[in-house]
Design goal:
Layout (H helix, E strand, L loop, with lengths): L3 E10 L2 E11 L4 E5 L6 H9 L6 E6 L2 E2 L5 H7 L1 E4 L11 H9 L7 H7 L15 H13 L5 E5 L7 H16 L4 E5 L3 H7 L2 E6 L2 E6 L1 H6 L1 H8 L4
Parallel strand pairs: 3-8, 3-9, 6-7, 7-8
Antiparallel strand pairs: 1-2, 1-4, 4-5, 9-10
Helix pairs in contact: 3-5
This protein binds adenosine-5'-diphosphate and magnesium ion.
């Protein structure tokens, strides 16, 4: 059974059809990239899944439950985690303590194991305030992971990162998905990132799903090229 199933999902803002009849299905442990031109509805789709916005119509099934219209905190508790670009890291706390705060009562997860996975084990005891932009983003991702999500939503996770940080982030995302426990949807537009992520890509345009395929297939698709990659691709 799919972990996440969107069925004929709609959301508009006045006359703008931000999400206009989206069907999407993701299996447990799947890694999926979501791309599309600015304003095509990607972030709105995330907002609908997390409950930050209510759909006008359509269904959202998550882990066997209909979650459309539930409060955001309720959906988060069911296992939908989202990393925001705006950082919620506490600068004066150590890296490890930031993760402990996010972990709360869920002590089943080893902080050191998580820090190792995030390539932050050597930064364990430094105040988060001294971290680079990329390292802060990884702490942020760790804080979401510390809450044990079944579904992880990443909206442009490498924005502002250096090339090596971007490459390390791809490896981290692949590593998270490879555990098989977490389904990951990542919104990105960086072609190098997508090529390296090497997963199924879903293309959105004007609130609708245009197609889904491998990065190579999607990139070779004439309609997608015209819409998104231009002729340079
Ligand atoms: P993307 O993330 O793909 O760039 P968005 O989902 O942010 O696109 O936006 C889709 C469309 O919906 C855009 O036309 C945007 O201006 C509009 N939109 C998004 N959120 C709101 C909002 N809260 N209020 C009004 N319009 C919005
Ligand atoms: Mg967006």
């Amino acid at each position: 059974m799919a972990l996440l199933e969107l069925e004929n999902l709609h959301r508009h803002f006045g006359g703008v059809k931000a999400v206009d009849g989206v069907d999407l299905s993701l299996e447990r442990g799947e890694l999926r990239a979501l791309i599309g031109p600015n304003g095509c509805g990607k972030s709105t789709l995330f907002n609908l899944i997390t409950g930050a916005l209510r759909p006008a119509s359509g269904r959202i099934r998550f882990a066997g439950r209909d979650i459309a219209g539930l409060a955001a905190h309720h959906i988060a508790r069911l296992g939908v985690g989202r990393k925001f670009q705006v950082t919620s890291v506490f600068d004066e706390l150590s890296v490890a303590d930031n993760l402990r705060v996010a972990q709360g009562q869920r002590t089943t997860l080893s902080i050191d194991a998580l820090l190792t996975r995030l390539h932050l084990i050597e930064r364990r005891d430094v105040p988060a305030g001294v971290l680079s932009h990329g390292e802060r983003q990884w702490v942020e991702m760790g804080m979401v992971l510390a809450a044990h999500p079944k579904l992880l939503l990443l909206d442009e996770p490498t924005a502002g990162m250096t090339a090596p940080e971007t490459a390390a982030t791809v490896d981290l995302i692949r590593d998270i998905a490879a555990t098989g426990d977490v389904t990951v949807i990542v919104i990105e537009h960086d072609v190098g990132f997508l090529a390296r992520l090497d997963c199924a890509v879903t293309v959105m345009a004007k609130g609708k799903i245009l197609c889904t395929g491998s990065f190579a297939d999607v990139r070779a698709d004439a309609e997608v090229r015209a819409l998104y990659f231009g002729n340079a691709a």
